[in-house]
Amino acid sequence: MYTEEDITSAVEAGVLTHESAAALRAHVAGLKQGYAVDEEHFRLVTGFNDIFVVIACLLLLAPLAWIGAAIAPWLGAVAVATAAWALAEFFTRKRHMALPSILLLLAFVGGTLFAAHLVSGGNAFFAGALAVIAAWFHWQRFHVPITVAAGSAVIVGTIMGLIMSGIPHAKSWVMALTFAAGVMVFLLAMRWDMSDVARQTRRSDVAFWLHLLAAPLLVHPVFSVLGVFHGSATLSQVISVIGLYGVLALVSLWTDRRALMVSALGYVLFTFTALLKQFGLVSLSFAFTALVIGLALLVLSAFWHPSRAYVLRWVPAGLQKRLAPSQ
To answer: Is the pLDDT of residue 103 over 90?
Structure first.
């Protein structure tokens, strides 16, 4: 799949003229008008070579971590981070390989975080700050879309860790803090989304990964408060879960992002399975639950376009212009 940035690069290199690039964009836009379902495009695997390179990178990075740690505990992490940056210079900057780029970014930030943690004697603030700075430098150099989400995850984890260790009885705030972090990440994701309404640039990919991070941070605390992990389910819990999932589906339709619905699936399956077990359907409870939910999601997927067009009617006109258009 060619992105808007690929077309722009081709124009700058003289491969395409401005007129031919404009004609190509118009042609692709015309084809998209016939799509029955809105899509969420993001680059993950461009070919089997991506998987091949990822396996090779893992075979290189794992021994580096092992051998380095045998010499000094922090050396293995530094070796992984250094090697990940060096590999990214070729596979990310020159080859633009999606899946290896994600792995190398995570290896670089993770290696930096772990090395800083060991060198500082477990200082969470120092380790987190250094990992965020490392993610920022990586973004400036390579612009891998998942980088912003990785940096955000480090910030959230660091702040949560500092609060838990520095404030007595702060463990009782875990769910509230997690939900608040989810709201902040979700708003950041929407900011990236609204900066690329047509979803033609890397900004849309950045928003995708931020939505993927925000989803569990938002969903887990709410379902935990409903008590779905107690091993049994009451009728009121089931009704609450259905209502909450309906709200998540509505937000997903508004934003044209399915991450919230996917993150909540496990909780819905667990709740309905527990309810059916109480009615004696022990062996088939999960199968019946998965069947019903699977059918419902397939119907929603098939009619995603008209469903989204309908719910957008209830959104203020000013906000509609800032959301991804319904094709």
So the answer is: yes
Domain that holds residue 25: 1-34
DSSP reduced 3-state for 248? helix
Q: Give a yes or no: residue 246 inside a domain.
A: no
Q: Is 37 left (phi over 0), alpha (psi -120 to 50) or beta?
A: beta
Both tokens assigned to 324: 């991804």
Q: What is the pLDDT of residues 211-262, one digit of tens each?
A: 999 998 998 888 888 776 666 667 777 788 888 888 888 998 998 888 888 8
Q: Evaluate if residue 283 carries a pLDDT over 80.
A: no
Burial class (CB in 10 A: 0-12, 13-18, 19+), 327: middle
Instruction: Note whether residue 27 is domain-resident.
Output: yes
Residue 3: inside a domain, yes or no? yes
Instruction: Please name the amino acid found at residue 35.
Output: Y
The number of distinct structural domains making up the chain is 1
Contacts of residue 41, Cβ cutoff 8 Å, sequence gap at least 6:
1, 199, 204
User: Among 141, 137, 46, 151, which Cα is nearest to 89's?
Assistant: 141
Neighbours of 258 (CB within 10 A): 22
Tell me the two tokens of residue 264: 């909540």
Q: What is the pLDDT of residue 37?
A: 38
As a whole number of angstroms, the distance between CA 249 and CA 244 comes to: 9
Instruction: Determine if the pTM surpasses 0.70.
Output: yes
